[in-house]
Lysophospholipase L1-like esterase (Mucilaginibacter gracilis), 257 residues
Amino acid sequence: MTNKKFSSLFLILLIVCCSFSIQSKKNLNLVFIGDSITHGSRLKDFTTQAPPVFATGYIQKKAGFGNIQFSNQGVSGYTTVDFLPATKKAWPKVIAAANNLYNDKSATLVFSIMLGTNDSAISGPNGAPVSAQNYRANLKTIADSLFNRYPDCKIIVNHPIWYSPNTNNRSVYLQEGLTRLQSYFDEIDALVKEYKTLHPKQLFLGDTKAFRYFKKRYQTDLGSEQGGHGTFYLHPNEKGAVALGNYWGKAIAKVLK
C-alpha cells in the first residue's frame, strides 16, 4: 500500500514538474528590422537562407524557449530615415507584421534591429550620409514609436557589419562610409545606456561581434560583387548568412534568458 501511495505521489509530482516546464518556456514573436543584409539579398532564397531564419533557428534550439514566430522586415537600400514613422515607407509594413504577431499574447514581442550600412553611404540611399548624431536620433524615434504601440515589447539593436572600403554599387560607400559606419557604434551603445532609465529592461545592445567576424572572413562569408572601384564585399553569402543569424540569435537568447 505504501509503495502504491509513493508511486502515485511520484507520478503526480512528475506531471506537475512537466507541466511547469512546458508553461515556463518562453514563446517569442520576432520582427527583424533592417536593410538588404537582413532581407537576404543576393541569396538564392531569402525565405529560407536569410539571417532571420537562422537567428530563429538558433534560439529554437536553446533550452527555455517554446514557440517562435518571426517576420523579416529587411528592405534593400533602406536607411533609418526610411523606417521613421513620418516617412510612411517601411513603418506601415513593420506595424502590420507586428500587429499580426501581437495577437498572440502568450508570446513576447521582440524587435531586432540592424541598420546603418546605407546610412553610412556617401551618396545614394535616402538621407545618406546620415551623421552619427542623426543616426542615433532616428533610432530613438523608431524605438519610442515602437514602445508607444507595444509597451511591453523588447528592442534589441545590433551593431552593423563590416563592408570593404571600396564598396561602390549604385550607391557610394568607400572608406569614408566605412569610417562613418563605425561611428554609429558609440551612438548605439549610448542609446542603450539612455534607455536603461527611460525603459528599464526593454531596450538592449545586441550583437557587437559580427563586424570583426566579417572583416576577418570577408572572402569566405561575403559575396564578391563588381563595382566602380573593383571587386567589393558587402552582402553575406550562404555561409555568412548562417553566421550572422547565429550572432543575432545568440544576442536575443542572452537578453531573454
Residues 11-22 have pLDDT under 50 and may be disordered. The domain at 27-256 is CATH 3.40.50.1110 (Rossmann fold). The first strand starts at residue 26 and ends at 34.
